[in-house]
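W.,

You were right to be curious about this one. When I first looked at the sequence I had no strong expectations either way, so I just let the prediction run and decided to look at it fresh. Below is the sequence, 389 residues in total, followed by the output.
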Amino acid sequence: MTSAYRNALLLSLGPAAGIGLGRFAYALLLPAMQADLGWSYAAAGWINAANAAGYLGGAMLAPALAQRVGAARAFAAGLAMLLPALAAVALTRDVAALAALRLLAGASGGVVFVCGGLLAVGLSLRAGSGGLVLGTFYAGTGLGMILSALAVAPLLGIAGATHWPQGWLILAGLSALCAALALLPLRDGLGASVRQAGSRGPTPLRFWRILAGYLLFGLGSIGYMTFIYGHLAESAGGWRQAMLFWCALGLAAVAAPSIWRRLIGGASPERSFALLVATNALGSVLPFLMPGALGLWLSAFLFGSTFFSTVAATSAFASALPQAFDRGRAIRAFTIAFALGQFGGPVVLGWTADLTGRLDAPLMFASLVVLAGALLGVLERRPDAIDGA
């Protein structure tokens, strides 16, 4: 194992904590919290919106933090902020307090994701193996999903909905372990070469098509992540089937660097983006086009492997930009576009579900939105064709 790959593997535990445990694990705990606290879907939506708003704020703040203190210190600060935000959820039943804590967790996740992405881009440029390094870093979120499913789903499935506070404490403990390991590469001075020099250069709006496509990808894909676990938990397979499916999503994300390595590292970044997003759209609609076990597990493989690989493709796009562009600014633009999509997605898709009274309609609509994002990626110009003037 090369030092670059080892460092990428350790760094990937940052998004495992900040995103896999800190953001997406909420979907596992939400049904129990709703049942125990008597939440309406509107209340649950506000909590989720607070987390998305925090993530957006953290993503916007991250480049300034990287410029001021360096990407490595900002990455570490984001992880440190995450742990109390998760643990404190177990101590309150107040909706406003819970929303504030989820906002804080979202902000920490945004800082970890953007600053960790800067570290991964710097590592990939030094190692000359961009596809593998970037894919490994972003696949860490899948590991966080696996950990959360194995730890939280049995607790709630066996002990009952009232044990959701213990679930949050478990998430905090797992995040602490991941954070400690994720910080190890920083002792080698990894972040020294990626301190931001400022937000100069051409505006990221010069590549607005892929940014808009990424926004649509965030809007559509979050519908799948929001609805699929609860849908499966309420089906005949119960929480065990839902847990295994969530683990399958995570495993597919972990395997994604090997599956899509040649595409991300070899093809033009905008074409990689388009193909990955189109494959994601297919994966999200398969449970409804192919009812049964085959469609379900194919869906987990296609969606899980492409969801986080698409993020790696956007970082590859940023790293391939001409020197005139500020790469940190480009990564922030992608993260903001994705966060805006994820902020609006649950509202739009939830309204569609309420209107139709069915889950298949909003999920199929979400797939069409994601497919539209892929088409925008096809229309994007190659990064080296942008003159940066």
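Here's what jumped out at me. Residues 95-127 form the longest helix (33 residues). And, maybe more interesting for your project: The chain has a mean pLDDT of 85.

Coffee later to discuss?

I.
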